Amino acid sequence: MKLYDMELSGNCYKIRLLCGLLGIDYERVPIDLMQGQHKAEAFLQLNPRGQIPVLDDDGLLIWDSSAILVYLARQYGGEQWLPLAAPAMATVMQWLSLAQNELLYGLARARAAKKFKRPWDQDQCRQHGRQGLQVLEQRLANNAWLAGPQPTIADIACYPYVALAPEGGVELAEFPAVLAWIERIRALPGYVGMPGIGAD
Amino acid sequence: MKLYDMELSGNCYKIRLLCGLLGIDYERVPIDLMQGQHKAEAFLQLNPRGQIPVLDDDGLLIWDSSAILVYLARQYGGEQWLPLAAPAMATVMQWLSLAQNELLYGLARARAAKKFKRPWDQDQCRQHGRQGLQVLEQRLANNAWLAGPQPTIADIACYPYVALAPEGGVELAEFPAVLAWIERIRALPGYVGMPGIGAD
Lengths: 200, 200
Prior knowledge:
Organism (chains A, B): Methylomonas aurea
Number of strands of chain A: 4
Protein name (chains A, B): Glutathione S-transferase family protein
CATH architecture of the largest domain in chain A: Up-down Bundle
Strand order of the largest sheet of chain A: 2-1-3-4
Mean pLDDT of chain A: 95
Helix content of chain A: 40-55%
Domain GST N-terminal (chains A, B): 1-80
Order of helices and strands of chain A: EHEHEEHHHHH
Strand content of chain A: 5-15%
Oligomer: homodimer
Radius of gyration of chain A: 16 Å
Number of helices of chain A: 7
CATH topology of the largest domain in chain A: Glutathione S-transferase Yfyf (Class Pi), Chain A, domain 2
Distance between the termini of chain A: 21 Å
Largest sheet of chain A: 4 strands, mixed
Pfam families (chains A, B): GST_C, GST_N_3
CATH class of the largest domain in chain A: Mainly Alpha
Structural class of chain A: alpha+beta
Domain GST C-terminal (chains A, B): 85-200
C-alpha cells in the first residue's frame, strides 16, 4: 500500500494515524506542494483534484481523506471503526461532515493562512472553526468519543485540525472536554503524532 | 418522518430529492432562516450546529445533509444507493466530499453571496466551484453516473448546487458532460425539482 503524502498536512496525517491504530504497513510517497508537484500531470492522473492524500492499495486508487478513512475502515478495520447500522453509520458521517466543514474551512484554513500564507480571511476562518469546536465541546462534555461508545473514524477525521488549531491562532483552553478527548486519542494503542501535535 | 427544511436550501433539497426517488413520505417543517429560527434554543436542541436540514425519523434525530443521505440510503434505499463493499463505498464518499468542499464552499457560497448577501468573496468562491465542476466534467465525460454504473447518493449530493450554479454567477455551458448528467437526473422516476432548478 502506498500513501501519497506530505508530512505537514493534517489531511494526510488522518490516514497515517488510522494506519497506525489499525497496524497497517504502507509506503509513504512524499509530494512536494511547495514545488507544485500535486498540480503536475503525473499526479493529476492519480487525483483529478490535485490534492493529497491519495491511497494506492495494490492498484486501487482512492483520493480524499474522508474516502480513504472509509475505505480503510471497511477493508481492514471492521465495524468498530465504521459501523454498518443506518443510525450508527449516519452518526459517524455527521462528524466526517463537521471535519470537512467547520474544521477544514475554519481551523485548517486559518492555519494555512497563518503558516503557509494562503489567501483566506483569517478572522472569518477562526470564527467558523470556533463554531465547530463548540459543537465538539458540547458532545464531548458527556461522551468519551464522538460517534458511539468507542473511537471511530469520526474521531480520527476531526482530531488533526483540532489539535493543530493553535497553529492557526485558535487556542483550545476554553474547550476543556476537547482537550481531554485529545489526550484520550493520544493514549490509543498504535497512536502516531505529527509535527505540531506531539511526537509518536 | 419529519424534515426540518427550507424551500430555497440546496442542502435540504438533497433530502427531498432522495425521498422522492425512494418514494418516502415525510412531513416538511419549514424553518425561517431570515428570522433566525435556526439559531433559536429550540432548534439548537435538534442540531447544535444550528443548520438545516435535520431529519426526525420516529424520534431519531440526524443532522447534516450528507449524514441524512447516508441514513436514508442505508435504512430505506438498499445497496443501490450506497454500496457496502469497501472500494465502492469509498468511491461514493469521494463525491460526498467534493459536494462538501468545492461545491458547497465554492458554488453554494457564491450563490449565497450573490442571492442572500452573505459575506463571502464571490470570485474566490466561483474559482473554487469551477475546480469542482472540472473534476465532475472529467468523470462524466466517460461515465453516466459519478460513483458506479447506476445513480447513488453521490449524484444526489452533488446535483443541487451544480444545477443552481448559475444563480451564483457560474455558467455551465463549458461543462457539457455535466449538463447531460443534469438531464439524466431530471429523468429519474420520482424526481422532484426546486425553485431555480426546474419544477417537479
